[in-house]
Write a structure and sequence with these properties.
The protein is built from 28 helices and 34 strands. With 874 residues, it is of the alpha/beta class. The chain starts with 26 loop residues before the first strand and ends with a helix. The structure holds ligand MGD (2 copies), iron/sulfur cluster and molybdenum atom. Iron/sulfur cluster binds next to helix 1 and helix 7.
Length: 874
């Protein structure tokens, strides 16, 4: 299924892509969202580009999820960064490059190499990442190159290296289909890796795979679970230690594998036995299934990694697979699912401050080897600062120049207020991004427009080590440049031209491939030397390391043996207290991506969860009502959201999404509340646990604004979303805030305003017109105004000719015959909750198949199936 873009069609002769178009102009590329890494085909048509799944790609075999299917819709609509700026002034690229190089040079000359840092992203392409890493670690002499992968995969990297001697994901996607038991630990696969979830679901239908979900929340992933263990947050190590002790007692260990291929078992089992876990009926069932099933895959994600005990959690899982010998064989193994499209590529080039390049660390031999390969004049010789520490050092004035690429740290890091203060204090802040206004670009002295997905050209590596091409099919905007190009030009301006003489991403890929094989001879896992001379343009997806590693029981440690790591339970750093009695957990929504710079522009995707919700167990609510606005506070900061009461939460725990930020709402940066506690080995912050309290956010009035463009609002609370043709804004304020709000709207929409007030009911309604067209409408009342939002949104920009039409707008009520489809459930076919409920009622639908036949809902990517089932259940 695809979606047509609103961009000019290349067939009409206006678009680009002709140099890359293959097979009648269609282009094969890779989805820019999650680490599943689905292959897509972009197809030109008379009305624009459509995007659909690539049937030949080994990650998805043609499938796409709601986000991938909506890709066409988010092209070109971006509020793009259109030209380089220096201190707010528009400049040409020559000047921008000279200025970046000049400012970096002067900071380093005065304060030394370690006063500079790159902060990179798993959304960069491997070639971009390689270039930045090489410049910093080989030529500027600093290892202060860290990435948002620190917030994402760092604990897995540390756990893999501790167990295997290398950062290796041993298995592949097919293993989930060959397994008899799949254990999902801290992973909401249904929402975060939807295509992988669909593959697992299909396998389950075929062979009856058992699925266990280990997550404090009941998520949509539980839809296919035979067992959901709603464990206490942070108790994974104890749970897996208990499992190891159980497997030992049940005779389920592989003693030959342990003896021949591992070390550390005795201490590890002793530590496991010393840990305490309550063996409930459910836990006992899980232990029994695990002990008695050979083909087990344990999938883990952020519920494991984003913890102050993240690395220990990873090793607790790896210990089990090593002790049972279930690794490197079809249908078994530990499997870390990566988040970002190129989280793995970043690890491969050394994008983390404690990695050098090509999966090498900072040992003397590796430093010497990479230094010789690069012919590096100023090699970094020790690890650099990890993200949380890096921004703390910036706050202390130790980092005096930073170049941020492809990430939004003013939203996504914990201790966000500190991060923002650090950026405000840092004398040189350079930001490369595709989007003009983000919470981070607002701190930049120099802004550099980067190519976006569909324009950029390079490679990415997905969760199962498959390297795929991202190919451009859109013309590059006049002033945007690839990230690798920006780094290369700055390197040249700094005098390193001879070492950065690349003219295309293909040149960089070749160098990267050669480094991976340089003096390797099988001693390092990552070796793609065979691809160095490949035809880069035609490069088909390939998996490095083959389908599975470690089948031979040989690991990348000095003695070739894997290490079991003795680990013991440690609780999350912040414990609830009388002042902050609840535990805050954070994570993702199905149809939003991170800080919403792209998905926030899509009406279909924004319709699924139109605003952030604080999810809470009804027992904890007290007098708080479902749907009320509440203020959540930690010792560091606060957040305002609407309350959603649900028994899917455990008592004493609440959940908020990570996505919203200052561009989309007031008081909705969750990182402001999160402390910067990190895992001692990986440096990964504990983004899933903070102690908070929840109070009513009582306001004198609520409002709803429908408009085509939104002015800066000075209102105690607001949240906006993109609808078809209009912005929809919910607002709330105190007694004195209304006058200021109306004044702001008057000054931006002009004075031609219609108005009706009903002081008795406490309501007021306004409409702003220009040339007979509706520009904006505002509804204020004590409670949330009940008006037909979708209908009104459709009227913005249209002529309101008759008095009846104008009166209808002010009444906020659609004429008979208009039905509001409601919140989007099925994003593929834009089917809303009202449409579904009505069809289920009036047509007496009782099964998914019937709903699919009647409305198509649920027949696309399948991500909404759990929600439709819930509606069917009433
Ligand atoms: N729709 C969507 N998909 C995405 C993304 C997105 O932004 N939107 N982002 C991508 C990225 S970068 C990433 S990293 C992945 C993340 O993918 P996931 O890790 O699956 O997503 P999260 O929602 O962050 O967290 C997963 C679960 O961990 C649980 N959890 C919290 N604490 C604990 C604990 O102590 N133990 C256990 N066992 N579980 C716990 C949470 O309740 C949550 O349901 O998603 C990727 N896919
Ligand atoms: N509370 C909480 N916080 C979290 C998490 C959580 O679960 N809870 N999860 C963490 C995780 S796992 C992750 S991965 C992070 C993600 O957090 P971020 O990386 O901060 O989020 P994004 O919105 O993806 O930011 C990417 C930025 O790069 C831009 N961009 C996209 N493509 C390109 C490109 O090719 N080049 C350039 N130069 N710019 C580009 C986008 O416009 C956007 O501004 O958030 C982390 N923060
Ligand atoms: S599963 Fe991930 S990679 Fe595949 S289409 Fe969805 S967001 Fe894109
Ligand atoms: Mo991530």
């Amino acid at each position: 299924m695809g979606k047509t873009t609103n961009l000019p069609s290349p067939l009409a002769g206006e678009g680009g892509g002709e140099d890359v178009g293959k097979g009648g102009g269609s282009v094969k590329s890779t989805c820019p969202y999650c680490g599943t890494g689905c292959g897509i085909i972009a197809e030109p048509g008379p009305e624009g580009w459509t995007v659909h799944g690539d049937p030949d790609h080994p990650a998805n075999f043609g499938r796409l999820c709601s986000k991938g299917a909506a890709l066409g819709e988010t092209l070109g609509t971006q509020t793009c960064l259109t030209h380089p700026t220096i201190d707010g002034r528009r400049v040409g690229w020559d000047q921008a490059i000279a200025e970046v190089a000049g400012r970096i040079r002067s900071v380093i000359d005065l304060h030394g190499p370690d006063s500079f840092a790159f902060y990179l992203s798993g959304q960069l392409l491997t070639e971009d990442y390689y270039a930045a890493n090489k410049l910093a670690k080989g030529f500027l002499g600093t290892a202060n190159v860290d990435t948002n992968s620190r917030l994402c995969m760092a604990s897995t990297v540390a756990g893999h290296r501790r167990a295997f001697g290398s950062d290796t994901v041993p298995g592949c996607y097919e293993d989930l289909e060959l397994a008899d038991l799949v254990v999902l630990v801290g992973s909401n696969l249904a929402w975060c890796h939807p295509v992988l979830f669909q593959r697992l679901k299909a396998a389950k239908a075929e062979r009856g795979t058992r699925v266990v979900v280990i997550d404090p929340r009941r998520t949509e992933t539980c839809d296919i679970a035979d067992l959901h263990l709603a464990l206490a947050p942070g108790s994974d190590v104890a749970l897996f230690n208990g499992l190891l002790a159980h497997c030992a007692a049940a005779g389920a260990l592989d003693h030959k594998f342990l003896a021949d291929h591992t070390a550390g078992f005795t201490e590890t089992l002793a530590a496991a036995r010393a840990d305490h876990v309550d063996i409930t009926t459910e836990v006992a069932r899980f232990y029994d299934w695990f002990a008695t099933t050979d083909n087990v895959v344990t999938v883990f994600s952020q519920g494991v990694n984003q913890s102050s005990a993240g690395t220990d959690k990873v090793n607790a899982i790896l210990n089990l697979h090593l002790a049972t010998g279930r690794i490197g064989k079809p249908g078994m193994g530990p499997f870390s699912v990566t988040g970002q499209p190129n989280a793995m590529g970043g690890r491969e080039v050394g994008g983390l401050a404690n990695q050098l390049a090509a999966h090498m660390g900072f040992d003397a031999q590796a430093i010497d080897r990479v230094s010789r390969f690069w012919d590096a004049p100023r090699m970094a010789t020790r690890e650099g600062l990890k993200a949380v520490d890096l921004f703390r050092a910036m706050d202390e004035g130790k980092i005096r120049a930073v170049w941020i690429m492809g990430t939004n740290p003013a939203v996504s890091l914990p201790e966000t207020d500190l991060v923002r203060r650090a950026l405000a204090r840092c004398p040189v802040v350079i930001v490369s991004d595709c989007v003009a206004e983000t919470d981070t670009t607002s701190h930049a002295h120099i802004r550099l427009p980067a190519l976006a997905w569909g324009e950029k050209d390079g490679t990415v590596t997905n969760s199962d080590r498959t390297i795929s091409r991202q190919r451009p099919f859109l013309p590059a905007p006049a002033n945007a440049r690839a990230d690798w190009w920006q780094v290369t030009e700055v390197a040249r301006a700094l005098g390193f031209g001879g070492w950065f003489n690349w003219t295309s991403p293909a040149d960089i890929f070749r160098e990267h491939a050669l480094l991976s094989t340089f003096e390797n001879d099988g001693s390092r896992d990552f070796d793609i030397g065979a691809q160095a001379d490949t035809d880069y343009q035609a490069l088909a997806p390939f998996q490095w390391g083959g389908k599975r590693l470690f089948a031979d029981g040989r690991f990348f440690t000095a003695d070739g043996r894997a290490r079991l790591a003795p680990v013991s339970h440690r609780p999350p750093m912040e414990a609830p207290s009388p002042e902050f009695p609840l535990r805050l957990n954070t994570g993702r929504y199905r149809d939003q991506w991170h800080t919403m710079t792209r998905t926030g522009l899509s009406p279909r995707l924004s319709g699924h969860r139109p605003e952030p919700l604080l999810e809470m167990h009804p027992t904890d609510a007290g007098r708080l009502e479902d749907g009320a606005l509440v203020r959540v506070s930690s010792r560091l900061g606060s957040y305002v959201a609407r309350l959603r009461l649900t028994a899917d939460q455990r008592m004493g725990e609440v959940f908020l999404p990570m996505h919203w930020n200052d561009q989309f709402a007031a008081h909705s940066v969750v990182g402001r509340m999160l402390p910067g506690h990190t895992d001692p080995l990986s440096g990964q912050p504990e983004l899933k646990h903070a102690a908070v309290r929840v109070e009513p956010f009582a306001m004198a009035w609520s409002g709803l604004l429908v408009c085509d463009s939104l002015p800066a609002l000075d209102c105690p609370w607001w949240v906006r979303r993109q609808a078809e043709g209009a912005q929809i804004v919910e607002l709330a304020g105190g007694p004195t805030d209304q006058t200021a709000l109306i004044a702001t709207l008057d000054s931006s929409y002009g004075a031609a305003r219609l108005e009706v007030q009903d002081p008795r009911l406490g309501t007021a309604r306004y409409a702003w017109m220009a040339d007979g067209k509706l520009v904006a409408a505002l509804f204020l009342s004590v409670d949330r105004p009940e008006i037909s939002i979708a209908w009104l949104a459709g009227l913005v920009g249209t002529d309101l000719v008759t008095p009846v039409e104008r009166a209808a707008v002010l009444a906020g009520r659609a004429p008979n015959g208009f039905t509001d489809t409601g919140r989007t459930v099925c994003a593929c076919f834009s089917v809303g909750v009202n449409t579904l409920t009505e069809a289920i009622r009036s047509q007496r639908l009782t099964s998914l198949e019937q709903v699919g036949a009647a409305l198509k809902a649920g027949t696309g990517c399948g991500s909404c199936v759990p929600e439709i089932k819930a509606l069917l259940a009433g």
